[in-house]
User: Fold Conjugative transposon protein TraK from Dyadobacter luteus.
Amino acid sequence: MFQKAKNIDTAFKHIRNFTFVAVISSAIFCCFTVFKSLKSIETAQSRVYILESGKILEAYASERGENIEVEARDHIASFHRLFFTLDPDDKAIQSGVAKALYLADGSAKKQYDDLRESGYYTGIISGNISQQLQIDSIRVQTQSYPYSFHCSARQRIIRPTSIVTRRLITEGSLRTVSRSDNNPHGFLIEKWITVENKDIGVQSR
Assistant:
């Protein structure tokens, strides 16, 4: 009688221990599953798919700090190309400059106004002149804020009888702002100045 009771008690202890281990194992497995699921969701959400020329390209989202210098250089390059790429068409000039002015503060607007008042754009149109810009280098200092930059480029001024090459050097600083359709990088060029803009070569056509 007592032996049976002892066996029952032992069996109950074994069952209780087995149940405890099973519950703890299940809890650990559930936590692991939830963790892996969250990581999978986070990885999936970090992927961005871009449709380009009928092809789907995959991109990955990342913290801004990881790519801040790359984004800053692209912002500066985009601004300079929009501001200095000109064709003898008033609407094309206004469209390009308008897009450029979204990327900079009043210092760029002042340079545009000075060029317009001096008749620069009128001369481009009346002389059938095109102007192209090639970026040579952009240096951005991201150790202190606002970020200062130095841009070196070459202008090709294509006239009916000649092609003039000019060296263009500008400097300024970058301030972070909200991203938008007009300013996808979320930077604003400030205190923008032209350090040098002089002829370095002339080619007859």
